TrEMBL record:
It comes from the Eukaryota. This is Ubiquinone biosynthesis protein COQ7. The lineage of its organism: Eukaryota, Metazoa, Chordata, Craniata, Vertebrata. The keyword Transmembrane helix does not apply. GO terms for biological process: determination of adult lifespan; regulation of gene expression; regulation of reactive oxygen species metabolic process; ubiquinone biosynthetic process. GO terms for cellular component: mitochondrial inner membrane; nucleus. Pathway: Cofactor biosynthesis; ubiquinone biosynthesis. CDD domains: DMQH. Signal peptide: none annotated. InterPro entries: Ferritin-like_SF (IPR009078), Ubq_synth_Coq7 (IPR011566). HAMAP family: COQ7. Keywords: Iron, Membrane, Metal-binding, Monooxygenase, Oxidoreductase, Ubiquinone, Ubiquinone biosynthesis.
Length: 172
């Protein structure tokens, strides 16, 4: 139960944060040529969040107490990187989605070690969402992420933030 609680809590927080990042990007770039691409990725993230909202209820898992912070931090990150332009927003997408897909891979390994049959449904969901995040990562690269100003610094900083958010959201 403790493993599942942590998995669902942190994944819910991550999908919530991703929704806020895309909301921030759309607030800045929604009417630009990047708008439809960002909206498409955001729509998938909305589906992910909806599913984790359902899993929170089904497994009786409490959300992280940090949701109000992720609400603001996610929007600020999305809007802030979008202010750098389309490439800045895409650099943010690459950084976040790479972190999240790596995190999902780690969870898949953990659940497979625990009891793959018991966690079959959860494993299917996480694998599908991981694949969606990898697709978003690739879309970001296709749309010029690596040409963003100070790309490697920006990517590293965002990924450090993601690691901290994952660590905290699993526990608090």
């Amino acid at each position: 139960k403790a493993v599942v609680d942590r998995v669902i809590r942190v994944d819910h927080a991550g999908e919530y944060g991703a929704n806020r990042i895309y909301a921030g990007q759309m607030a800045v770039l929604g009417r630009s040529s990047a708008g439809p691409v960002i909206q498409q990725m955001w729509n998938q993230e909305k589906d992910h969040l909806k599913k984790f909202n359902e899993l929170m209820v089904a497994y009786r898992v409490r959300p992280t107490v940090l949701l109000p912070f992720w609400n603001v931090a996610g929007f600020v990150l999305g809007a802030g990187t979008a202010l750098l332009g389309k490439k800045g927003a895409m650099a943010c997408t690459v950084a976040v989605e790479e972190s999240i897909s790596d995190h999902y891979n780690s969870q898949i390994r953990t659940l497979m070690e625990e009891d793959p049959e018991k966690y079959k449904e959860l494993l299917q969901i996480i694998k599908q969402f991981r694949d969606d995040e990898r697709e978003h990562h690739d879309i970001g690269l296709e749309h010029g992420a690596e040409a963003a100003p100070a790309y490697s610094i920006l990517k590293t900083a965002i990924q450090l933030g993601c690691k901290a958010a994952i660590f905290l959201s699993e526990r608090i």
